[in-house]
Design a protein that fits this description.
The complex is a heterodimer of chains A (about 80) and B (about 230).
Chain A: E1 2-10, H1 17-28, E2 41-47, H2 52-67, E3 73-81
Antiparallel strand pairs in A: 1-2, 1-3
Chain B: E1 4-9, H1 16-26, E2 30-35, E3 46-49, H2 69-79, E4 84-87, H3 89-96, E5 103-105, E6 113-121, E7 137-144, E8 148-150, H4 153-161, E9 165-170, E10 189-193, E11 199-202, H5 218-232
The chains are: A alpha+beta (about 80), B alpha/beta (about 230).
Chain lengths: ~80, ~230
């Protein structure tokens, strides 16, 4: 069994209004060192696969077909054996 | 021969009955509901994918509905050049299905916006807008949190070059201004169609603007145009 952690973020070229609102609130907290906030989502997949490579392939299909919309989002997959 | 309109219901659709009522009772068109598990579109002359929150908007608006059984039929139906009209969540579903280009982001100022807005007819040479005037201003309500249309520069140029932008947000005089583009959409886009001209997606709700008791009635003008075009098609 493998666990895939999929990080989905808005593409860099796209303004992230939620991140901007959170950044503004962090500035109000006095955390002025924080320069930028981007908000995305984390999706965990438990995958039955016989190798890490196959697990990654399956996760990649899941992302490109459903989990991420590549018109506006980028995704990054991390796989670990569990 | 009278034409039949099909209104698709997904779990979480909530403008399905409004669309049905507007088309059947106000416009007098033969209209019937289609369930998302149906796979028979025989005898349907126009498909309407209504607004709402299909599958609770889980993941992204329209992302799950795209995999409903009926969507494969919708894709085949559209590929035959037959007309499909997606309103609000219906537009989002068409984008997620790849039937229309682009994607929907959260409204620029993050608020859910429910109000009457003005849209300008940019192209009246389609089966949906034939009979309307180019530049005509329609007052129609919007009701969405994710209606901030996004497409990259190349995609936008293709839409512009092929005259695929059907409606843009404007003010009451028909001017497209920063203020009239209330949700931050690229090029103030409120509605587009595909290259074949048979698939329309729009964020405003014409089905909510058909009876004087409830406000503006410009939605009727659009449905009249669509029904007239269907009749001569």
């Amino acid at each position: 069994m493998y666990k895939a952690k999929v990080n989905i973020t808005l593409r860099k070229s796209i303004l992230d209004p939620k991140g901007k609102a959170a950044h503004h609130a962090l500035q109000n907290l006095g955390l002025n060192e924080i320069d930028q906030v981007r908000i995305g989502k984390l999706i965990e997949l438990d995958i039955n696969a016989d190798s890490k490579k196959n697990a990654l392939e399956l996760a990649d299909i899941a992302c490109s077909k459903l989990l991420a919309n590549e018109v506006m989002e980028d995704y990054h997959i991390e796989i670990e054996k569990v | 021969m009278s034409k039949t309109i099909g209104v698709i219901i997904f779990p979480g659709s909530n403008c399905d009955h409004d669309a049905y009522h507007a088309l059947k009772h106000v416009m007098g068109a033969e209209t019937r509901f289609l369930w998302h598990k149906d796979n028979d579109l025989d005898g349907i002359d126009l498909l309407v994918i209504p607004g709402g929150f299909s599958y609770g908007d889980y993941l992204r608006s329209g992302a799950i509905a795209r995999f409903s059984p009926i969507m494969q039929e919708v894709i085949n139906y559209a590929a035959e050049g037959r007309p499909v009209m997606g309103i609000c969540n219906g537009f989002q579903i068409l984008l997620e299905s790849g039937l229309l280009p682009g994607a929907m982001l959260h409204n620029e100022k993050l608020r859910f916006i429910c109000k009457n807005v003005f849209i300008r007819v940019e192209n009246n040479q389609t089966i949906f807008t034939g009979g309307l005037e180019r530049g005509e201003v329609l007052e129609i309500p919007v009701s969405h949190g994710e209606g901030n249309y996004f497409i990259d520069q190349d995609g936008l140029k293709r839409l512009q070059d092929n005259e695929r932008i059907i409606f843009r947000y404007c003010n009451s005089s028909g001017e497209v201004t920063a203020e009239s583009n209330f949700n931050g959409s690229v090029d103030a886009i409120a509605g587009i169609c595909n290259n074949g001209g048979n698939i329309l997606g729009m964020m405003p709700h014409p089905e909510r603007a058909v009876e004087e008791l409830l406000g503006p009635t410009d939605g009727k003008k659009l449905f009249e145009a669509v029904l007239n075009q269907l009749a001569i098609a």
